[in-house]
Amino acid sequence: MRTWFWTLLLAVVAVALAVVLRSHSGNVLLLVWPWRIEMSLTLAVLLIVAAFVVLYVGLRVLAWLLAIPDRVRVWRGKRAQARDHELLERGWISLLEGRYSQAEKDLTRLLDQTKVQTRRVLAALSSARAAHGLSEFDRRDRFLASAQEHAGTDPGLLEATATVSADMLLDQGRAERALAVLAPLADGGARHLHTMRLLLRAHAALNHHDQMFSLARALVRRNALPRQEADQLIDASGAARLRAAAANDGWRAIWKDLKAEERLLPEIALAGAAAFEAAGEAAEAARVLEAAVAVKFNPALVAAYARCDASQVSRRLARAESWLQSRPTDPELLTALGMLCLNGQLWGQAERYLLRSVSRRNDAQTHALLGSLYDRLERPADAVRHWRLATAASMALPVLATDAALPAADTGSDPYRVDAEGGYAVGLADLDDETGPVSGYAALPPAATVADYVLDPDARVSKEQHDRALAPEDAPLAGGTSDFDEYFDSAPLPAAAFEDPVPTYAPAPPAAAKPAAAPAAPVPDTKPPFKNDGEH
């Protein structure tokens, strides 16, 4: 638009000048001693215009010739910049792809050839990142020192160097060093979210709970941290602050500083309730736990709610039973109700809740509570049974290396085996008294009282001595006296393979215990009902 405007204006001026010159003809006289020059006005105007054009073109050509060195310098700079950009792009692509060796090679070339301060700092930091990916920490530190040297006094470049250094130090696990690097930026960190995140990571690694709490709050306020992650950090740090101040009365100030939604977080609610309990304010502790459970049901909160004095049982029991209406099959809640009834000496209700809980989950704590309950009710058999179930529920049997070569052992007569229903498969022979076995449990056969499936081979000697003491003196051997036969004769055999429903076997004595010149034991002429030839 501007070009058309000036073109039109020039045409109008030319037409107006032509009209004026045609209407006002005249002569122009120039006296330049010793010459006298006379010409028409029109020619004089044309000569002036031509002289202006020639002068303008001449000056422009002269300026172009004088600017040749500058143009060459600019051209060389652009070519160097293009080479730098090519190396930088290639290095960053390799760095993002994880090809750290190639990235470090390209970026080191860029660091050596570039003359621009910002590109030097960028190349040094990128090379440090590549060396960090290769776990070359000494070379990484040299690149970081070079970046700090090239940054000079530029605050932006110094901050970039500090943040990159702190990020890599945190990845390496050197939180204290990272915090020292970020210390100059801590005052202005409120304006830079990435610096705040790095400070939060460093303080979290060092368990600086006060700084964790304040930084997590600030990042949530600026929507720079996911709410779930922020809640976890605030919950952990706030609870730690309350527990640390529980020795004195300073926890009350911390509790008042918490927001209403922060007091409902599980760990903070547990720590606050414990502080109120220690201060003798059980009712306030109950209100704290009730409010937290109402927001989100948590087994730890319910378990803490069940631990109270007898004076608090009636109120807490009524509230917990209201929770049971919405969660009638929750084993954690049923166990907590049983514990409350135990604290209030409500034995019948406690038994009903604990049995309902253990029917849904075989839990060691619930069995232990049932054992304590039956012990108070003077029912020792039931108490012992549940105490043993509590022990069995918290144990795991090891997997033997020989399981791959040996068949599965017959554990049907194992007194310590717990079946899938949560009870014992057989009776407890060790509970027998003079009058007979304990009510509800049958005595074990003598041959199944001690199992030979042991982890330690040296323990076999004591077992054989035990069997020899229990077996009759004239009991025949089940097989040969070799170690191979003794090993397989020790495994329990199915009762259906024998004429006698409960056969008894006495293994041969250990080789070290037999006399050197003793003859081999006589073998009966009749064929035994089952011959163990090593293929069993």
What is the gist of this entry?
With 536 residues, the protein is mainly alpha-helical. Helices cover 60% and strands 2% of the residues. The protein is elongated and about 150 Å long.
Q: What features would you describe in this structure?
A:
The chain is an all-alpha fold and 536 residues long. It has 22 helices and two strands. It has helices at 2-23, 41-66, 68-97, 100-113, 117-133, 137-151, 155-172, 175-182, 193-205, 209-221, 227-244, 251-257, 266-278, 282-295, 299-306, 313-326, 331-343, 347-360, 364-376, 380-393, 460-470, 483-489; strands at 27-32, 35-40. The chain has a two-stranded antiparallel sheet. A hairpin with a 2-residue loop joins β1 (27-32) and β2 (35-40). α5 packs parallel to α7 (155-172) and α16 (313-326) packs antiparallel against α17 (331-343). The chain starts with a helix and ends in a 47-residue tail after the last helix. The model is unreliable at 399-406 and 418-536 (pLDDT under 50).
Topology of this protein?
Blueprint: H1 2-23, E1 27-32, E2 35-40, H2 41-66, H3 68-97, H4 100-113, H5 117-133, H6 137-151, H7 155-172, H8 175-182, H9 193-205, H10 209-221, H11 227-244, H12 251-257, H13 266-278, H14 282-295, H15 299-306, H16 313-326, H17 331-343, H18 347-360, H19 364-376, H20 380-393, H21 460-470, H22 483-489
Helix pairs in contact: 3-4, 3-5, 4-5, 5-6, 5-7, 6-7, 7-8, 7-9, 8-9, 9-10, 10-11, 11-12, 11-13, 13-14, 14-15, 15-17, 16-17, 17-18, 17-19, 18-19, 19-20
